[in-house]
Amino acid sequence: MTGSSSKFSIGGSTPYANALWWKQLGGNASAHNFKYDLYFYLKNPTAAQALEFDVNQSVGGHKYIFGTECNIKGSHTWRVWSAATSWVSTGIPCGMPSAYKWHHLTWNFQRTSTGKVKFVSVTLDGKTSYVNRTYSPKSSGVSELNVAFQMDGNKDMTDYQVWLDKVTLTAW
Q1: CA dihedral defined by 104, 91, 162, 27, rounded to 10 degrees?
Q2: Which of 79, 138, 157, 159 has its CA 20 to 30 Å from the CA of residue 49?
């Protein structure tokens, strides 16, 4: 896309293995609103079980996990993370991304005034869906803010690559 995208790869022989990359951004206790905005590209989307796009904030003894995944081969929906129950389907479709095409993804999150994790909305290729789900955070003793991307392999652990570009996290 811009000529400076990052390429991520996964492969091997262990079914459903995954690979996680993250960037620590330091603590930002004053931030309550987050916009995770990026472009992604795949040549072989059928090899992916799921793609995860996460933001994590730890502040005031709590870890707010804004975990999301496009569950390509399972529920074919966007799923969000609940620290109490794990993955929860939003019912919002997220099917197989088109091959050889840049996809624009934006997630909006909030750390609410009542101390909850709130998934506000997801926009994929210009189509916005409102999630409006809240969950409790988990305990944490650190101060941090980070973004993460995870590739999940399929049952055959077919090798594949994903390119990310224009990755930004806006926090306020």
Answers
A1: 80
A2: 138
Distance CA 92, CA 77 (A): 5
| Fold topology of 18-171 | Jelly Rolls (2.60.120)
pLDDT tens string 10-58: 999 999 999 999 999 988 899 999 999 999 999 999 999 999 999 999 9
3-state secondary structure of 60: coil
Contact 101, 113 (CB under 8 A): no
Enter the DSSP assignment of 115: S
Distances from the Cα of 61 to the Cα of 14, 115, 142, angstroms: 36, 11, 7
Nearest CA to 21 among 144, 146, 149, 161?
149
